[in-house]
């Protein structure tokens, strides 16, 4: 091994802080160039019964997705789970790709499979209202955003509507 002169060792030690500064500066510039992205809003537009039996039912659920961004949103799929009273009642997924226009809305359909027997047990235990949660993930085909989780919760009344 050939020993390095002391001046070369000193020069490499002095350039280490400069190298670290340059790396941090490049990372900061890249972060500043990352486009701002607002989370799209997802809501259920309609639910239609498609058939089934006592143990399993299929529903076509139409979702509405609103894109608040100034660039198109390429969606590559969606998965969702509906929980009622804390228990999973229905699940579904779709790998159908579509594009939500910039600053626009798009509706898409997905088949959800439900366990109505479990749902009936939940309805029987409550007389006024049931709490629900809709959780899922929208798969996005963008470089910095691969998936967008969503969560919607609330309750629906079991009492007949008053007129």
Quick tags:
163 residues, alpha+beta, Immunoglobulin-like, eight-stranded antiparallel sheet, 8 strands, 48% strand, elongated
What order do the helices and strands come in, and which of them pair?
Elements: H1 6-33, E1 41-52, E2 57-66, E3 73-84, E4 87-94, E5 98-100, E6 105-114, H2 116-125, E7 129-140, E8 147-157
Antiparallel strand pairs: 1-2, 2-6, 3-4, 3-5, 3-7, 4-6, 7-8
Describe this structure in words.
The protein has 163 residues and is of the alpha+beta class. It has 2 domains: 1-33; 41-157, Sandwich (Immunoglobulin-like). It is built from 2 helices and 8 strands; from the N terminus they run αββββββαββ. Strands 1, 2, 3, 4, 5, 6, 7 and 8 form an 8-stranded antiparallel beta sheet that branches. The protein starts with 5 loop residues before the first helix and ends in a 6-residue tail after the last strand. 11% of the residues are buried. The mean pLDDT is 76.
Brief account:
This protein is of the alpha+beta class.
- CATH fold description of the largest domain: Immunoglobulin-like
Count of domains: 2
| Fraction of residues in H or I helices | 10-25%
Q: What is the count of DSSP helices, taking H or I runs of 4+ residues? A: 2
Beta-strand portion reads over 45%
CATH class of the largest domain: Mainly Beta
Radius of gyration: 26 Å
What is the 3D form?
Answer: elongated
Largest beta-sheet characterization: 8 strands, antiparallel
Low-confidence stretches: none
């Amino acid at each position: 091994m050939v020993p390095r002169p002391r001046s070369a060792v000193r020069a490499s030690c002095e350039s280490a802080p400069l190298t670290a500064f340059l790396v941090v500066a490049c990372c900061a510039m890249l972060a500043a160039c990352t486009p701002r992205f607002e989370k799209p809003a997802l809501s259920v537009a309609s639910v239609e019964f498609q058939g089934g039996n006592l143990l399993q039912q299929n529903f076509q659920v139409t979702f509405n997705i609103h894109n608040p961004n100034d660039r198109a949103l390429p969606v590559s799929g969606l998965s969702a789970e509906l929980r009622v009273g804390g228990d999973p009642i229905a699940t579904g997924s779709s790998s159908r790709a579509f594009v939500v226009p910039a600053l626009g809305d798009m509706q898409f359909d997905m088949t959800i499979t439900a366990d109505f027997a479990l749902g009936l047990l939940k309805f029987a235990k409550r007389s006024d209202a049931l709490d629900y949660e809709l959780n899922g993930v929208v798969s996005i085909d963008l470089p910095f955003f691969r998936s967008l989780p969503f969560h919607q919760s609330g309750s629906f009344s079991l009492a007949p509507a008053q007129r």
